[in-house]
Amino acid sequence: MKNIIALILTIWTSIALAGNTIRVASFNIYMKPDPLNSSYSNQRAVEICEVLKNSSHPHNKNWDVVLIQEAWTMSVRGLLKKCGYPHVLDMIRGKSGIHRHRRGGIKIPINRKGEELNVDSGLMILSKHPIVAKKRHNFSVNGRLLNIFKDGEVLASKSLYMAKIKVPGQKGIWIANTHLAANYCLTADRSDCESYEDHRKIQIDEIARYTKFLALEHPVILGGDLNTGPQPVAIDKLWRQLGSILGGFSQGHYDQSIVTSAEANFFNQHDHGKLDHLFGSRHFEIKAAGLCFEQTFKTADQPRMNYSDHYGWQADFSLKDLSKIKTEKFSK
Q: What is the pTM of this model?
């Protein structure tokens, strides 16, 4: 049975990649530890899984790769590994069973498989194509210790996940997934709130060093929840400088009014803007960018439930003729 399923997936992916196009989605699933199920984590996790593993589901858009953020618990991570994607990146930084925290000598035990425990990076990469190499970088800054009881940023290990996937007819494509420090301001005024603008700038600088280096020889797709964007509340110094920081990367066209964290969402009271993004290196032409997981579903006690407090964001990445692309040099 497993061989039959593998054969079907191989045939499907070959068809899906006709024209050297790969469809990628980025989705912040909002799965924090929720023992009382106050944010309906149990129901939402099951419904998300149903969408992912069922190609005939009306909300499934045939993604080759799905970038996940805020998969904060082992139970949710375990469920996502059974949702139709045969290749999954779930890794903790460190070796010999020890994870050395970036801010000191704190040692955290990990499971024998070297996978994340609860409240680590929250990142995962789900792929229909084999993952042939992997990397993880923990950011040098993330949250302020004095704010530990206000926002909890310092408790997580915000990071950059990188997976090199092997797709039909190609040597390899690097897929990078990230989740930057959140902005806790509800207005563009930032006079009496914690925006973490400075931390996001440092984090994206670190991301640029890795992804630009990889892009010298390989196509690279970068996505995730950047907690910054084109709408007034989300605009900060990072968004204004992003084009120069990620020189050589671009994103697909989208309507400037689109938001991925909206007050129309069951879990939101404010429009936070378009926080979720996908970028491609110079190797790609990016098409058909748009929302995904923006639909709702019903539960036993709620007639309208969103999959998350974010909508997902997807794009089609079409490889250009690589023989015509000149090698570019980036500053490290």
A: 0.89
